[in-house]
Predict the structure.
Amino acid sequence: MSSLRTVRPVAAERLPELLRRMPKAELHMHIEGSLEPEQMFALAQRNGVVLPYPSAQAVREAYVFDNLQSFLDIYHAGTRVLKTEQDFYDMACAYLARAQADNVSHAELFFDTQTHTGHGVAAQDVVNGLHRACVEAPLRFGMTASLILCFLRHLSEDEAFACLEQVLPLRDKIVGVGLASSERGHPPEKFARVFARARALGWHLVAHAGEEGPPAYIWSALDVLKVERIDHGVQAIQDPALMQRLVQDRIPLTVCPLSNLKLCVYASLQQHSLGRMLDAGVVATVNSDDPAYFGGYINENFTQTFAALGLTAQHAYQLARNSFQASFMEPAERQRQIERLDAVFDTFESSLPS
Ligand code: ADE
Ligand code: ZN
């Protein structure tokens, strides 16, 4: 694992405190996946939507998944309560407050418009509500936030193009585009032309690949879509040549351990590839994906994964640093965030027994 800083060893019982205190960027978080059941019920009432569950507790109890599709079916049903610009604003603010509590200093939020336009909501209400929360984030939540529009890969290329055209008047409110939803059977190359157009528009490019799908989907996300980051990417561990490519080209992976556990990508966190990826030199980051559904926000992902894999303070520093380096922040701001990270590690190390 390459790192500019050698971090002093930290006893296992103090690691959760370090993980909590360190500033970090969250780069893989679907804002619709932050909708907690209580907020889902409040929005349902506000908008006159009837939910097929009697209580928030019953909703939580339904969150048992055996693969990505079983999750997506429930997740898309939950988004039916979102109707107005204010709903999207409120949902984003609730997430930003949670993120601030976890010392997230920068977040890049995934959202999609296709789900919502399918429910009769205007794409501009989605974008404007989320963007207003991002603009207010520095003053209200002491952090920065930006938006990445995900195309839904189970829908057609034509539908992705239509989605792109709808958001064009709002193009400055979005920093990039991504690709989400059902992975198997929907390879990245299906969206080659849409991504080429997004690239020509100057947007950043990312894509979910190698969550459940094969390493071949990671190769084509890189070589055909020309993405800058891979979301998940955990299946790369099966392909040594791909691992070499990720390391050599410093292509970040936005890894989501609790998501992988809940969607049965791994039978246990002890089997997760994150530690092996980091030790091989991959620019991996830790993220929460859909925290309301998977049982934890970003710090819960850090603490549970560190405990399961026996990761160290050195890994913690590397992951936080990677998160800033992999972000789409301006270079000067990225540098400022890394200096803050170093200052927090300096203070923490000075509190350790000599
Ligand atoms: N949309 C929300 N969460 C997702 C995930 N984990 N994979 C693909 N699409 C998603
Ligand atoms: Zn995701």
The longest strand covers residues 144-152. Residues 8 and 349 are 7 Å apart (CA to CA). Strands lie at 24-30, 104-111, 144-152, 176-180, 204-209, 229-232, 253-255, 284-286. The domain at 12-350 is CATH 3.20.20.140 (TIM Barrel).
